Amino acid sequence: AQSVTQLGSHVSVSEGALVLLRCNYSSSVPPYLFWYVQYPNQGLQLLLKYTSAATLVKGINGFEAEFKKSETSFHLTKPSAHMSDAAEYFCAVSYPGGATNKLIFGTGTLLAVQP
Amino acid sequence: GAVVSQHPSRVICKSGTSVKIECRSLDFQATTMFWYRQFPKQSLMLMATSNEGSKATYEQGVEKDKFLINHASLTLSTLTVTSAHPEDSSFYICSARDVPGGARGYTFGSGTRLTVV
Fold it and tell me: Is A72 left (phi over 0), alpha (psi -120 to 50) or beta?
């Protein structure tokens, strides 16, 4: 069974500091991996996705993530945090192929950015 | 880019009544629609998956008679919470994709905050 684990339900960084949000997956086959951001009372916005092409994926708003098969990880990073980055971040995995490809979400990481 | 419009954004209803939530794909055909429920400060829990013209597939523990899903067209899916009770209060989010299988992105609606009083 596939699953995704996000280490750290809360992460706090200073404005301008590195952002690192951790995500590890468990899957018997190479999955597709996604990072989403959610602002309060809103839906989810896709930041980036890995679909078996380049292992370093660049997304919107300066975020990027690297797929490391040996570590079964897909951590999200941003070199310099902005106040506007404060939000909930979800890592998700889906199983390639199949008719529905449902997304399975991690438990989320709430990012706080301190001035 | 792909857009999914979800309405209403907020709804308050009395216990025992039914509430319908709509999700429309505005610029693509939603072959598959996913319905999620999110409790405060928690992750998204998949409730059901529906393919256009077919019956929805519900996740384990989700009452299909309580959460009615209709996906009669490629641009519209609805979730009806029947005989709502306070414990049904939650944030409901839909997600659509146009291509079954593959790695295409999932487009999310903006969510519906349901409060049952």
Answer: left
